[in-house]
Automatic annotation (TrEMBL):
Substrate binds at H231. Its EC number is 4.2.99.-. Mg(2+) binds at E271, E288. This is Virginiamycin B lyase. Belongs to the Vgb family. InterPro entries: Vgb (IPR051344), Vgb_bact (IPR011217), WD40/YVTN_repeat-like_dom_sf (IPR015943). The active site is at H273 (proton acceptor).
Amino acid sequence: MNRVTQVSIEERTVADPTAGPYALTTGPDHALWFTLVHGGRIGRLVPGGEPTSHRLDPDCGPTVITPGPDGALWFTEYRADRIGRITTDGTVTEFALPTPGCGPFGIAAGPDGALWFTETAADRIGRITVDGRVTEFPLPVTGAFPSAITAGDDGGMWFTLNQANAIGRIGMDGEIVLHPLPTEEAAPVGIAAGHDGALWFTEIAAGQIGRITPGGRITEFPLPDRTARPHAVTVDGDGTVWFTEWGGNRVGALTPDGSLTVHDLPTPRSEPHGIAIGPDGALWTALETGALARVTT
């Protein structure tokens, strides 16, 4: 049995408690890059080193960040309706989106060499090339609040529809297919690709982790604490699914054999959001109270 029974968790302060570390990812420079959603900055941390940050418009709301196909990091500016790009030496370029008030949130690199993102307030999926050309694809539903997005192994982009209670897929041709969830009002948020061709996602309102195959078959895994509000999700090299419990102040692990464990974070009410595998092979999560937590097994 591949059960994650014990973990070690260390917290590293990276910002003022009001700055709000939100999402994080590993960059091509073997550093952690993270957004400071309330502080209007992009942060960088080499494990074992000192954190640095790069200033943006203080009110732009940088949210999700991801490596791009061009060796830079790309991120959404939720409150400014822009997509940002930052090079590993800190040079920032910003691209205004065509739809005012669209609220870009999730972003991920696609198999076509472009970045794909969600527009939470406009019911659209967006695509931006590395030179800044934007295309928008309307969803077949309204009020859906598309949230996280990731590339699937099937050549499409998969995303959560938080208010439409569904998982969506958009192909490189723009064709969109929606898969309703079995649990009503589950409110999916985070999504990540597994190693078996399936996608894993969080159901923040239902207290469950979900799995969907490319054919649309959905399995749901209830958490021990159904009020834990699972938020973000990632998959490690062994195929273990890791997720944050924003309401439970924990990180959880679901192994390929179905064993599920949850682990308390050291600081009460630390508000864990984003989660990713770091350049050191450890699991890292962003705590909105001003720290990054490093989790090792």
